[in-house]
Design goal:
CATH topology: Ubiquitin-like (UB roll)
Helix content: 10-25%
CATH architecture: Roll
Number of helices: 1
Number of domains: 1
CATH class: Alpha Beta
Strand content: over 45%
Strand order of the largest sheet: 1-2-3-4
Order of helices and strands: EEEEH
Length: about 70
Amino acid sequence: MGVKHTEGDKSNAICPHCHQVVATTLRRRDVPFSDGSGLVRDLLVAVCDKCDMVVAIPAQSTPAIQEARR
């Protein structure tokens, strides 16, 4: 089993908005599906510390996404 991440954990990721590698913080957010068909509430995601945009979704959040799709 992989590492269990928790809210407040720090990491780095490429931010598509800032166009650079940025520091990120795991936070809980409501995240819409890319096709606009719904929303996943209270999802653990990596948020850019510079622009506050969602930049990554940890693997442990996948079950919550699948459940929201149903």
